[in-house]
Structure formats: structure tokens, C-alpha cells
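Quick start: what a row looks like.
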Amino acid sequence: MKKLTYLLLISIVVIGLTSCGSKNKADNKLGKLELQIPAELKDKPEAIAFIKGMNKVVDDYAVIIDNALSDVGDLAGKDEEDLSMFENIRLLKATGEITVGVAPLMVKWVNYMDKRDSLNMQLTADELLALESSCNRLEQRMAQIETKYSHDFNKNKEQE
């Protein structure tokens, strides 16, 4: 019984220590992207909440895409009829995981687009420009993914 308690305690400590790294999985997997709040928006709590929330949605999306590419990136450039049964299963599994993971994010995305429309009516022209400059995280994350998997993307282009 003491041994079981001891093992349980060690397991909890190990899990705690491994989960205490960076809270952002996208930063861990793709590289750090600083969350930048423009000075023009520092006193606008709604705009700050929008930027933070939207960045979280983008980062979650990037992690889903990164996970899928790490699972099936080696299949890039292969014709569907050349895939083995196991490769087809891997591809189907990755497609399902993307679908299941992205569906709730799309709901959040639509909600944030509605919030953005609402914010647009409340902000000055300078504040709108500042907000727009902070909303390019999706392009930055996709560039990180393209760089990380450039070998697979280039292999696919060569075969076309």
C-alpha cells in the first residue's frame, strides 16, 4: 500500500512538472509568437480581450494542423491509389481529428468575427489600425507551419 501511494505521489509530481512549461502549445510546437497589444488599445479592455481570445483560437487551430501534418506529412505527394491500407487509415484518422478539432474552433471564430464587427464601431481610426495590426497571427502561424514542413510541401510541388 505504501508503494502504491509513493508511486501515485511521484506520478502526480511528474505530471505537474511536465505541464508547467509554456502554457501555449503552439509556442512549444512552432516557436514563440509574442502577444502584442498596441499602445493605442491598452486602455480598451474589450479590444484586449478580443486580441487574446482570437490569438488563442488561432493557436489552437495551428496546433491541430501541426498535429495532423506530423502524423501524415510523409504522405505528401503520393497519389491516393498508391497509398497502402495503413496509410489510408492514417490519412482518414488525421482528417477525422482535424474535423473534430476544428469544428468548435469555427464556432469561436465566427463569434470573434461578430465581436470584431462590434469593436469596429466603437474604436477610432487609429485604434482600428492598431487592432488590425495585431490580427495577423493566423498568417504568422501558417508561415511557421509552412517552414516546419517545407520539406513535405516542396516534395509535393516537385511531383506536380
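That is the whole record. Confidence is low (pLDDT under 50) at residues 1-22. The two ends are 62 Å apart (CA to CA).
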